[in-house]
Design a protein that fits this description.
Length: 454
């Protein structure tokens, strides 16, 4: 962890006084510190930090502004603003668990290519905080962020498979992969079709962990390590962030880490179709008709709607075991961003109980999401004159909904299914996260799974 979260306060720890907007006098600081803050015009604005000295001029502590309506993870900014050393909250924050988590999440920095890490800050967890849980959740988030932030020259299908192997080794999970033409022999034809044009072979990565007989939880993550759009090529501007098109895979691996670290009594399976949607003489084409694992034939209306194709085969495979719950995550549609922006991923499910639990968990742990409808009449938009369905619609409306309806066709036996159309990226710095790859919804999903199966 970049920030050390300790259960006990160090002897020379300095206090952090939390100040709501224009309520400096309620911070609990001494008269001298308050006078210093007033003299320096400190008002408690959101993210504002002011250090104050002791009688000898040495650093004595800091004030930190929460603003009028503080964000749930606002305290994460402290990890990047505080001077090095040991710190503690002068008064307990409203939610000690979220405060502890925010501090750790806010200390993240992606340092693989030379960026400097955040400062060496040691912080005493607020009373009542579960330090072990905060670290466990943050490690899952950091895994997802690291994988997404790594560019495609170092995060192709080979490297993504290796990341799954490293995670499996850490928790004694079994990891295997079906690669290249083996995909055809194992009836995973759409994964093969999408990835066959790339230098690195397409594959299905399969991680399994937990006791046989335990409730089956299956996670499916889109692992398109780079997306050119295929023969329906994207413009240059559309490719700038396509290293993050494996964000679904990164997120389910981060979620799997949380589940295994918590030792949830489940039979976990993680399926990742890992491909690069590249262009060469053997790339799949518009108007091609592919036969899926499930047997449904799919006409290709657009090669840039490749994510749903690889997910479909993986979902069909996972569904064959009739798991208790299947969750798939993918950076799937621009339509989801148009509807809800980058910070609020939509999810789709027919399970009312699961939908309610996910929404409540997202609010409780500051991991927001928004339910969108599997609107049945729109399914007709995916009709094809020559195949069972098309991979896109012709009118361009409700793209996130129709993508979810496409995936739904490949899930039959699972007791519950939910699809998450995530962005996987922070375009702007947040209190608990820098610009870059992001884990979305996985802390909320972890809470739901822990409450259901823990």
């Amino acid at each position: 962890m970049p920030l050390t979260l300790a259960s006990a306060r160090e002897a020379h720890s300095r206090p952090v006084y939390l100040v709501a907007d224009e309520k400096l006098e309620q911070s609990g600081a001494g008269e001298a510190a308050l006078a210093w803050a007033q003299a320096n015009g400190f008002s408690g604005g959101s993210g504002e930090l002011l250090a104050f000295p002791d009688d000898d001029g040495a650093l004595a502590g800091v004030f930190f502004g929460l603003g009028k309506a503080p964000a749930p993870l606002a305290l994460g900014r402290l990890a990047r603003l505080l001077p090095e050393g040991a710190w503690h909250f002068a008064t307990a924050p409203e939610d000690p668990n979220l405060a502890a988590l925010a501090l750790v999440l806010g200390s993240y920095a992606f340092t693989r290519y030379g960026k400097k890490p955040t400062r060496d800050v040691r912080f005493a967890a607020p009373e009542g905080a579960d330090v072990e849980a905060a670290v466990r959740l943050a490690e899952g988030v950091f895994l997802a962020r690291d994988l997404i932030n790594t560019p495609a020259n170092d995060m192709g299908p080979d490297a993504l498979e290796e990341a799954a192997h490293r995670l499996g080794q850490a928790f004694n999970a079994k990891v295997s992969a079906v690669r290249g033409d083996e995909l055809l022999a194992n009836n995973l034809p759409m994964i093969h079709a999408v990835g066959r044009a790339a230098e690195q072979a397409p594959r299905l990565i399969d991680l399994q962990w937990g006791q046989e007989g335990a409730p089956k939880v299956t996670l499916v993550g889109k692992g398109v390590c780079f997306d050119t759009g295929g023969l329906d090529i994207k413009p240059a501007s559309g490719m700038l962030l396509m290293k993050k098109d494996m964000g679904g895979a990164a997120n389910v691996l981060g979620l799997a880490r949380m589940i295994m670290a918590a030792r949830l009594p489940v039979r976990l399976r993680v399926l990742i179709p890992a491909v690069e949607n590249a262009i060469s003489g053997n790339a799949f084409r518009p108007s091609d008709i592919l036969t899926s694992r499930k047997g449904l034939t799919v006409e290709i209306g657009n090669t840039d709607a490749e994510g749903r194709l690889v997910l479909a085969d993986a979902l069909a495979l996972g569904d064959e075991e009739a798991p208790e719950i299947v969750i798939d995550m993918a950076t799937l549609t621009g339509a989801a961003r148009v509807a809800l922006g980058p910070d609020l991923p939509p999810f789709f499910t027919h399970d009312e109980t699961l939908a309610s639990a996910l929404t409540d968990a997202g609010e409780a742990v500051a991991d927001p999401m928004w339910r969108m409808p599997l609107w049945r009449p729109y399914a007709e938009k995916l009709n094809s004159r020559v195949a069972d369905l098309n991979n896109v619609t012709s009118d361009g409306f409700a793209g996130s909904v129709t993508a979810a309806l496409f995936l739904e066709r490949f899930v039959e036996k699972a007791k519950s299914w939910a699809h998450f159309d995530i962005y996987g990226w922070n375009p702007n710095e947040k209190p608990a996260a820098p610009v870059g790859g992001e884990a979305q919804a996985i802390r909320a999903i972890e809470r739901v799974l822990r409450e259901r199966f823990g």
